[in-house]
């Protein structure tokens, strides 16, 4: 088939299917475990430790993204992608065979290390093999994995827990991993400039240490330890020292793992800030909406999960259409429209907070997801299109890391707010009125996150829409690497 065709039956179809299967691993794993937690705790014990199943995964997923991305620009995307799928497969098998809660937590870290390579590599590979015009359509395929996961994940988690064993929520990843590995290994061929590289080991170690300490401090502050305790202060002190050391090392590194001048490019910086704010808002909705509905209206967990699913159902629909809009209006205008829509949805959710309604929550989540779907893909494509191949991995990694960092910040801020409101209202997290007040404050802050994202979108460089090259006929962007 002609190379210009886009879809699963095209010449690049096997690569696209492999990318979709790889993204499905990360997407489903982010939702499938939540409904199975009671079964896991019943079987393995360790109720007080189970939050680490989520925290360690998020931490491991985030901290090596910049390192993976830099290596992808040096040795190619394919080996990093296959490494990520392999780690995810290993972690899944080990999780399914876990004999205790500490073992399961450790193996979830292995899964997270794999996911940290897979997600940015999928988006980088898509940026490599498709033009800007083609990505306008391909983003719908990739984003659909998150929409599918929002429904399939909680459903599979519940079904496996009730009728089989919670261990199958991990074993189900095995055939998907094998499919993704084979498709990428056989179908994806890339041309990499072979030359000697000087790997920035000190920079990579300091960046990983600093980001690990910072994210760990955010995730555990106020939960595992008090903010002003020795561990609470110490972990941020380690993060600060590591970051200072990282900056000093990167200024002298021949090939820095994360070039600091990258953040002088306004389009890259603003796209990262947008990803960070969206990560914070998304974690707030996915974490608090199910509990809010369950404690205020008595809805079962599956219903609460489906209400959140509206968030990720609207997302891929909008993402599949966003390309048409940015080809006509430009990246900045499209992102602004999307963030404005998401802000309206977040404000509606906050406004209805004190009057719980499943319909209102689901509609508001759908609007938020619809708006973010118009925003995430255009901001990523804009950043990717402003650099050459040998920087695209790092730029994509910056966006993925920004979103993970935003999720950690959002979890910490919103958790502190919710806990503070609950404490001020008697300390009962089962009282419907107390949960309603706490959740409403969370939704208000989510709305603030969404509105603040508009400021980042306004700071994006104002550029004309991508134009068609009169010679090749390809859609090209007008951004330069210095934008």
Please tell me about this protein's structure.
By secondary structure, this protein is mainly α. Helix content is 76%, strand content 1%. It has 3 domains: 1-192, MFS general substrate transporter like domains (Growth Hormone, Chain: A), CATH 1.20.1250.20; 200-254; 260-483, MFS general substrate transporter like domains (Growth Hormone, Chain: A, Up-down Bundle). The chain is built from 17 helices and 2 strands. Helix 3 packs parallel to helix 6 (101-129). It is globular, with a radius of gyration of 22 Å. The two termini are 36 Å apart. Mean pLDDT is 82; it is low at 470-483.
Anisotropy-based shape: globular
Biggest β-sheet, characterized? 2 strands, antiparallel
Q: What is the domain tally?
A: 3
Count of individual helical segments: 17
Tell me the layout of helices and strands.
Elements: H1 13-32, H2 37-44, H3 52-63, H4 65-75, H5 77-96, H6 101-129, H7 132-163, H8 168-171, H9 173-187, H10 201-220, H11 230-250, H12 266-297, H13 301-329, H14 331-351, H15 358-385, H16 389-424, H17 432-458, E1 467-468, E2 475-476
Antiparallel strand pairs: 1-2
Helix pairs in contact: 1-6, 1-7, 1-9, 3-6, 3-10, 3-16, 4-5, 4-6, 4-16, 5-6, 5-9, 6-16, 7-13, 7-15, 10-11, 10-16, 12-13, 12-15, 12-16, 12-17, 13-14, 13-15, 14-15, 14-17, 15-16, 16-17
Quick summary of this structure?
The chain has helices at 13-32, 37-44, 52-63, 65-75, 77-96, 101-129, 132-163, 168-171, 173-187, 201-220, 230-250, 266-297, 301-329, 331-351, 358-385, 389-424, 432-458; strands at residues 467-468, 475-476.
């Amino acid at each position: 088939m002609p190379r210009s065709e886009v879809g699963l039956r095209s010449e690049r179809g096997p690569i696209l299917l492999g990318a979709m299967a790889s993204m499905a691993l990360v997407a489903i794993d982010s939702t499938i475990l939540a409904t199975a937690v009671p079964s896991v705790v019943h079987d393995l014990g360790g109720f007080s430790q189970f939050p680490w199943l989520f925290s360690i995964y998020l931490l491991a997923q985030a901290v090596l993204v910049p390192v993976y991305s830099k290596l992808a620009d040096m040795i190619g995307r394919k080996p990093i992608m296959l490494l990520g799928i392999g780690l995810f497969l290993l972690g899944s098998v080990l999780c399914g065979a876990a004999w205790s809660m500490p073992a399961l937590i450790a193996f979830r870290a292995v899964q997270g290390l794999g996911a940290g390579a897979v997600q940015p590599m999928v988006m980088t590979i898509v940026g490599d093999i498709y033009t800007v015009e083609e990505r306008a359509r391909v983003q719908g395929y990739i984003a659909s994995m998150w929409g599918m996961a929002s429904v399939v994940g909680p459903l599979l988690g519940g079904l496996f827990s009730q009728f089989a064993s919670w261990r199958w929520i991990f074993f189900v990843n095995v055939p998907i991993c094998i499919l993704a590995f084979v498709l990428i290994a056989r179908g994806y061929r890339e041309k990499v400039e072979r030359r000697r590289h000087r790997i920035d080991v000190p920079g990579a170690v300091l960046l990983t240490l600093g980001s690990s300490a910072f994210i760990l401090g955010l995730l555990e502050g106020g939960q595992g330890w008090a903010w002003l305790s020795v561990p609470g202060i110490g972990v941020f002190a380690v993060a600060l020292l590591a970051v200072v050391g990282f900056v000093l090392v990167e200024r002298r590194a021949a090939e820095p793992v994360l070039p600091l001048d990258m953040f002088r490019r306004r389009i890259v910086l603003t796209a990262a800030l947008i990803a960070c704010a969206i990560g914070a808002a998304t974690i707030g909705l996915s974490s608090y909406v199910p509990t809010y509905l369950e404690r205020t209206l008595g809805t079962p967990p599956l219903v609460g999960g489906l209400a959140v699913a509206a968030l990720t159902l609207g997302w891929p629909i909008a993402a599949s259409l966003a390309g048409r809009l940015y080809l006509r209006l430009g990246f900045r205008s499209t992102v602004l429209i999307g963030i404005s829509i998401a802000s309206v949805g977040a404000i509606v959710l906050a406004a209805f907070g004190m009057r719980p309604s499943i319909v209102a929550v689901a509609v508001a989540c759908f609007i938020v997801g619809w708006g973010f779907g118009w925003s995430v893909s255009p901001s990523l494509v804009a950043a990717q299109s402003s650099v050459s191949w040998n920087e695209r991995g790092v730029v994509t990694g910056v966006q993925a890391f920004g979103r993970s960092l935003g999720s950690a910040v959002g979890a910490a801020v919103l958790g502190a707010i919710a806990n503070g409101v609950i404490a001020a209202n008697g300390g009962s997290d089962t009282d419907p009125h107390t949960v309603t007040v706490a959740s409403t404050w969370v939704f208000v802050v989510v709305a603030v996150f969404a509105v603040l994202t508009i400021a980042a979108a306004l700071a994006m460089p104002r550029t004309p829409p991508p134009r068609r090259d009169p010679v090749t006929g390809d859609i090209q962007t007008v951004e330069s690497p210095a934008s």
